[in-house]
Amino acid sequence: TLGTQTDYRDGEAQTDPYSPEYIVPFGSVPELLTLATLTWGRGLPAGLAEVEMIERAREKRAWEATLPAMDDASKIAKRRKMMDDMERKEWAFREQEIEKLQEIRLQVFKKMLRRREEHQNELDAKRLDDHWQNHQKAKEEKIKKIQHDYALMLRKLIAKRKNMMGKLERRDIIKEYTDFASQTYAPLSRIGYFPDNHSERYVVKNFYLNTFEGLCELEASLPDSVTQVKVKAPKPKYTITKTGFIKRSARLEVELAQVHQ
């Protein structure tokens, strides 16, 4: 009446395949023992390479069965020749495997080099793009400055062309008074105006300052507070507090006076 539910699938809970114990009869060599080195995850389940290895092991066992016996001296040379041929075949097969491994490593190395080259090309392209953007900004700023200078010089030329001879333009009083650098506010001596001429008209002429009678009258009209100076003596500073201690400022003044002496 009760049920359970796990947090795992059957595939996650699956362990390695079970391999029971076995006993080999005396004098027999089962073919299955040649696969004892293969375990789950290391050769099992069998792939193409494992199948080829099994086929080579079968061919080698069949070849060992065809070797001549060692009891006859005339067949020793034949047996040695067959073993030398088999050894050459094994060495040739081993060389082919080494070449295959080298070819695989070479392909992997080429792939890594190609990937690194693509990454480097991307970095170079990004760097060139940034460099080009900076040059474009500098170019736009330079073009903007040239256009601004061009408009400024063009306005100056237009202003000069309006009054080419310097005598045809009529006087504009409103323009002169709105421009503080005009002749109205800052006249130039090279056009006939000398600001130092008639400077005596700016001198102050007063009866009370230029004559003795005016000075006496001016002095008599002044109040006593102007002619008679009243000096008030400064009040002494309280250097002692209510509790009888000397203030720090007073001590510092005494030390400064001693240093000054």
UniProtKB/TrEMBL annotation:
One term under GO cellular component: axoneme
Keywords, alphabetical: Cell projection, Cytoplasm, Cytoskeleton
InterPro entries membership: CFAP91 (IPR026720), CFAP91_dom (IPR032840)
Main location: cytoplasm
Subcellular location: Cytoplasm, Cytoskeleton, Cilium axoneme
Pfam families, sorted: CFAP91 (PF14738)
Domain (CFAP91) ranges: 4-156
Similarity annotation: Belongs to the CFAP91 family.
Name this polypeptide is given: Cilia- and flagella-associated protein 91
Organism from which the protein derives: Colius striatus (Speckled mousebird)
